[in-house]
């Protein structure tokens, strides 16, 4: 139980930063939505890009298997976004992954802008997916922040030098990754069930 409380102690110790991460994510997401509502071509360009890179076809091909769809969503969220977009760049340049993800949050807003009735109705069940996954991303962003802070200011984690600060920061990244992973799993399962079972009846009605 002591180990299970460790991630939450880190969050409490950096609560202000965690709240800032949340505010930035939702601000950029809503800004992206607003931009797409003002300039619908942004949304059209995003959808066209998904068609060209095969994302749309991949989604359609997975709709017959909810668990495979969940696993694919989980892999994309954890590996493509969490690791490759946020954590890995931040391990090379402090805080860089945070900026990269905020750009993606803007893109999410552009993609999900309620430009028509279909998208607006889809957002009703999908809002829970957004909430869960954004909280997971906020935790990963917090991990990137904690790592960068420990790296640049090793004294804040009781380290004698930046090398030790970096290593201690990585340990905190590992702890914060645990609740983030739980949220990613819950979000992936819900999103797959939502898209396959909740959205179609809603649109049909």
Automatic annotation (TrEMBL):
<protein>
    <recommendedName>
        <fullName>Stage II sporulation protein M</fullName>
    </recommendedName>
</protein>
<keyword id="KW-0812">Transmembrane</keyword>
<feature type="transmembrane region" description="Helical">
    <location>
        <begin position="95"/>
        <end position="114"/>
    </location>
</feature>
<keyword id="KW-0472">Membrane</keyword>
<feature type="transmembrane region" description="Helical">
    <location>
        <begin position="134"/>
        <end position="152"/>
    </location>
</feature>
<feature type="transmembrane region" description="Helical">
    <location>
        <begin position="20"/>
        <end position="39"/>
    </location>
</feature>
<feature type="transmembrane region" description="Helical">
    <location>
        <begin position="66"/>
        <end position="88"/>
    </location>
</feature>
<keyword id="KW-1133">Transmembrane helix</keyword>
<feature type="transmembrane region" description="Helical">
    <location>
        <begin position="173"/>
        <end position="199"/>
    </location>
</feature>
């Amino acid at each position: 139980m002591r180990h299970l409380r460790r991630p939450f102690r880190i969050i409490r110790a950096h609560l202000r930063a965690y709240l800032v991460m949340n505010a930035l994510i939702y601000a950029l997401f809503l800004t992206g939505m607003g931009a797409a509502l003002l300039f619908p071509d942004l949304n059209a360009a995003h959808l066209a890009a998904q068609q060209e890179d095969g994302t749309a076809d991949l989604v359609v091909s997975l709709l017959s298997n909810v668990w495979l769809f969940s696993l694919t969503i989980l892999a994309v969220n954890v590996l493509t976004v969490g690791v490759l977009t946020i954590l890995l760049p931040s391990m090379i340049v402090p805080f860089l992954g945070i900026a990269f993800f905020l750009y993606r949050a803007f893109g999410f807003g552009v993609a999900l802008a309620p430009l028509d009735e279909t998208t607006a109705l889809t957002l009703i069940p999908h809002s829970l997916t957004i909430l869960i996954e954004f909280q997971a991303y906020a935790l990963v962003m917090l991990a990137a922040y904690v790592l960068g802070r420990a790296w640049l200011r090793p004294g804040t984690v009781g380290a004698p030098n930046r090398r030790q600060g970096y290593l201690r920061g990585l340990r905190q990244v590992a702890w914060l990754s645990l609740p983030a992973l739980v949220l990613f799993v819950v979000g992936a399962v819900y999103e797959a069930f939502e898209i396959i079972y909740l959205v179609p009846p809603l649109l049909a009605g």
